[in-house]
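[Meeting: bench + compute handoff]

Bench side (C.D.) handed over the final construct sequence. Compute side (W.E.) agreed to return the predicted structure before the next meeting so the bench team could plan truncations. Sequence as handed over:
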Amino acid sequence: MALICSISNEVPEQPCVSPVSNHVFERRLLERFIAENGTDPVSGEPLSVQQLVDIKAPHPVKPKPPSATSIPAILKSLQDEWDAVMLQSFTLRQQLQTTRQELSHALYQHDAACRVIARLTKEVTAAREALATLKPQAGLPAPPSAPPSQPVMGGTEPMEMGEASGMTPEIIQKLQEKATVLTTERKKRGKSVPENLIRADDLSKYRPIASHVGLHSASVPGILSLDLCPSNQNRILTGGADKNVVVFDKSSEQIVATLKGHTKKVTSVVFHPTQDLVLSASPDCSIRVWTLAGGGSNLQILRAHDAPVTGISLHATGDFLLSSSEDQYWAFSDIETGRVLCKVTDESVPSALTCAQFHPDGLIFGTGTADSQIKIWDLKERTNVANFPGHSGAVTAVAFSENGYYLATAAGDSILRLWDLRKLKNFKSINLDERYEVRSVTFDQSGTYLAVAGSDVRVYLCKQWQQLLQFTEHSGLATGVRFGEHASFLASSSLDRSLKLYAI
């Protein structure tokens, strides 16, 4: 209910009450009346301004005057309100357009800055590569060149060698002597199972004991390759999609070294068995040799291929490296001198090579191809001596058993095949789950167990080919798996950027 002034009969802006007549008045009108008459307007009794009582009321809404109730007045009111709304809408549109222009300009500046940063980063990387591969300039004394039989590490500056220099009789003799020693030792070991080897019953009790996710960058997630140090089982080597190679100590749970230099993801890594060296390969067409001394540095860059390098395998002597590439060639290189000793392809069946692995004796090795072929090569003669057909899809992994008799292979057909190298035939095929992707297969050092990494991680008992373990803890595709010494633990890597360890 609205308050009405007893003088003007309108809604008061500042209502007050006269205690004499108890009527409501507009304060300014009542004060003027009291100043002129000194009495209450209604009762006529004496009244002073100090006696007035203010009323607290919401802000009054004045009714429209009677003149505004006519049709022309209503139309004019509506027109005024419409004009006000349109003016406000026009103002808001102007402000929106201005804001859009400012945002577009800011985005353009940001994009231009990103392009400049990317170009500068590329130039800095190229400059570092050029600086790392500088050779002696004219007028400066150059170190005397060493013959192939005398390896030179080349100081701390990386070397780039790409021309095949041939396998000398001295190198072939060295390979043969090493193979003779390894064959004798392997036959002795094959007569009995190592006493310290974890038994199958105990292995089947393995459970995840650790998971490490901070080794590689989270912006480009994924560990693509894995290896264990033969001389120090606490050290684990990983290659990631972030272009880095990481050496991790599982006992202290600390990163020992982060090796940077590749310009693309790192797809293969290998620990040197006796020296403090690691090797890595990448689709950037390079193979890098790193030393871990002094926090890690790049010793050499081997450029044996003209296309992405798909696999590397270190020879048992520790002096030579086998590499495969999408350029359809496999290469045999001296890691100490950086020389490519030979580079071979099968011209009769040209196909990209997808993986490569040395036989334990080191005189033969296997390669997988993109057209499903498994090829066995004689290293000394550089010839293809056997082929294992049967897979469908690109071959993704090959692994030789320590006893030298078995070869495990996997491809895009979700079948794990076992081959007998003595009879040159497939004696066992393990059908995995439908669309199961295999990325890595490996035998333990005794040849008793076989591990598979892909859609999950599985371990099989050799000869019986019984599945002992299956781990599904990785949220992404498992890319690598390795046994610790005497199968005391198992390590796996994954595209989910985690390194997991399994043991009792």
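W.E. noted at the follow-up: Residues 135-164 have pLDDT under 50 and may be disordered. C.D. will use this when planning the next construct.
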